[in-house]
Design brief:
ten-stranded antiparallel sheet; five-stranded mixed beta barrel
Length: about 625
């Protein structure tokens, strides 16, 4: 103990010297700060009277569902991250709410390597507080950009002001040099940061380390208190205040919960709970040591495993377990879908250990971004390489709505308009209609393989001619409708539609009969037609199942062939022609037309004159 106090004395002297040099007053704790230990209890701060220099605090965000997030440190990146705190670590409500530190990291889930919870020691004085990590002795300071917070060996000379809302107990922790900002939980990132108020910024609360001495034996429970049907969770007894350490444990299922859960190892410190059916089960625990006994109970929520379509219908902020097939990768994120194409994004900054084609069960919190439902902070619960595939939903442009966002879709008759494989936005118009614009969006962080595949596919494309069935992840950014360039993106050329558009665009022909098509154009189109399959050729030969564009191409073809005959132009479509076949081509020029018209007029006038003369003679004879 003497060495411990001496080491602290040196620390105190060093910090005090720095403080005086900076013109500040920092009051350090009377006892040396230590990392939170098993059994430590933190009570919610309900007023500014609970702010005491030298005491230890947690900065936390408590959701309405009871899940907690406590500020964590990740080395040089500073106090930007958070780790989840199960509801079993959050006891009570209102003024009685507590966080119990069970296993040295607060029963945290999802902590990245190198992260730890930060227990802050309050220093300084009201209006000019300092917050110092009890484990590393680093201070909480604000970056020069006024947003991010990080650790520093020296205290920020500006300090922090702290106020407590007397009704909600929310804490406003503001840097004195940016009074319009405060420490919040940024739900869109997610992380703790220092921002101006906005819809993404959620208020934090402070929890103060309890100094109360346990005078009677108590027992609490740590572990996971929510899971999916078919899973197993573990609960661990945490005892305090017993005179003896010869514990006898007795875990039991409360009446009415027998159909929901079953227990294994129920006479040991840690019990395994099998989650059998959807509902909320209660587990009782009795611990005996000598003549002392303590009891507690814990509620476990068992959730159904939802389809992707069911998860997309949930309200934001709902914790859900979802089963889906990993069907696309977009940047660092993955998409999962039901087999019929109903999809959603798994949004995370972490690396997910999944492969395309895996069927997974994932736990996360529903969220909405750009009108698309996503699952934030996903945790993979199970992975199975089933080889299942996802069938895209075949839709038209007019079908596109927000319900389809993140779905795997296929949309036909998309005519390439502009762009190259190296550009960000490549435009497609449905049936060439510019009002029906769908953008193939190339995310800058996508794999080069996706971009390379697109570049290869586009090698022989012709603008406003090449027609494809565009398949991929449907997205929307503001009012721009998109398909994201991902591993699931395909662009299958419709050769029938493409040839029809090519024929209409590349064959020069004056319908008045003055300008005949060049044989070079005709033969080039014949060569292009020869590349079609027999089935594709038959659409032009018979006209069966032809679209409007194909019918327009057939009409233009028939006009040329009927007018000029197959001795001039090869009947490469093998169409049945109606007249002027086998080279019987009438003379076609304006002079002949005029002679014919004049001749007809002369004959008509002569006939009328004869009729008039005959008629007059008859009348005179009477």
């Amino acid at each position: 103990m003497m060495k411990f106090k001496k080491s602290y004395a040196f620390l105190f002297a060093g910090v005090l010297a720095l403080s005086v040099g900076a013109g500040l007053l920092h009051t350090m704790p009377e006892t040396s700060p230590v990392k939170a230990a098993e059994g430590d209890v933190y009570n919610i701060v309900t007023s500014e009277a609970d702010l005491v220099a030298g005491d230890s605090y947690l900065i936390a965000r408590i959701n309405t569902s009871g899940m907690g997030y406590v500020m964590a440190d990740q080395g040089n990146t500073g106090f930007r991250y958070r780790v989840g705190l199960p509801t079993s670590n959050l006891l009570g409500s209102g003024e009685s709410r507590q966080i119990t530190w069970y296993d040295g990291n607060g029963g945290a889930t999802g902590a990245a390597l190198g992260e730890h919870f930060v227990e802050f020691v309050l220093g300084g004085e009201s209006g000019n507080w300092t917050l110092q990590d009890s484990e590393t002795n680093a201070y909480l300071v604000l970056n020069s950009n006024g947003n991010n917070i990080h650790s520093s060996t020296g205290a920020d000379s500006n300090g922090w002001s702290i106020t407590i809302n007397p009704s909600s107990y929310e804490a406003t922790i503001s840097p004195n040099n940016y009074s319009d900002r405060s420490i919040n939980y940024n739900s869109s990132s997610p992380r703790f940061a220092c921002y101006k108020p906005s819809s993404n910024q959620q208020a934090v609360t402070l929890f103060r380390k309890s100094t109360a001495v346990v005078s009677s034996p108590t027992v609490n429970v740590s572990g996971t208190t929510a899971g999916m049907v078919g899973a197993e969770v573990e609960l661990t007894a945490v005892t305090q205040g017993f005179s003896s350490e010869e514990y006898v444990y007795n875990w039991t299922v409360a009446g009415g919960s027998e159909a929901l859960v079953s227990l294994t190892n129920e006479t040991t410190k840690t019990v395994t709970v099998s989650l059998n059916n959807v509902g909320t089960a209660t587990i009782n625990l009795e611990v005996t040591a000598g003549e002392e006994t303590a009891n507690t109970s814990v509620a476990i929520t068992i959730n159904d495993v939802l389809t992707v379509a069911e998860a997309k219908a949930l309200e934001d902020g709902t914790n859900a377990y979802v089963r889906g097939i990993v069907y696309a990768k977009y940047g660092s994120s993955y998409y999962i879908a039901d087999s019929d194409g109903a999809g959603m994004q798994l949004f995370t900054y972490s690396t997910l250990n999944v492969n395309l084609g895996d069927q997974i069960v994932v736990n996360g919190e529903t969220d909405t971004y750009n009108s698309a439902k996503q699952l934030a902070n996903p945790v993979i619960m199970s992975t199975e390489a089933t080889g299942q595939t996802v069938t895209p939903k075949t839709v038209t442009y007019d079908d596109l709505n927000d319900d389809l966002l993140s779905d795997y879709i296929a949309i036909e008759n998309m005519v390439w308009h502009s762009g190259a494989a190296s550009t960000t936005n490549i435009h497609f118009y449905e049936n060439g209609d510019s009002s029906k614009d769908l953008v193939l969006y190339n995310h800058s962080s996508n794999s080069a393989d996706y971009e390379s595949a697109l570049a290869t596919a586009m090698t022989d494309w012709q603008e406003d001619v090449t027609t494809v069935t565009l398949t991929g992840v449907y997205a929307r950014f503001n009012q721009t409708l998109e398909i994201n360039l991902t591993s699931a993106s395909t662009y299958e050329v419709d050769k029938v539609e493409t040839f029809a558009r090519s024929f209409l665009a590349n064959l020069t022909c004056d319908p008045d009969g003055v300008t005949a098509p060049s044989t070079e154009e005709w033969n080039a189109l014949a060569d292009e037609f020869a590349l079609l399959s027999e089935e594709e050729k038959a659409v032009f030969t018979t006209g069966e199942g032809a679209s409007q564009v194909v019918n327009e191409a057939i009409a233009k073809y028939d006009y040329v062939m009927d007018k000029y005959g197959d001795s001039t132009y090869t009947n490469f479509m093998n169409r049945t022609l109606t007249e002027n076949v086998n080279g019987v081509v009438p003379a076609v020029d304006q002079t002949n037309n005029i002679i014919i018209i004049v001749s007809v007029c002369v004959l008509a006038l002569s006939a009328i004159a004869v009729f008039v003369i005959v008629y007059r003679r008859k009348r005179l004879s009477k």
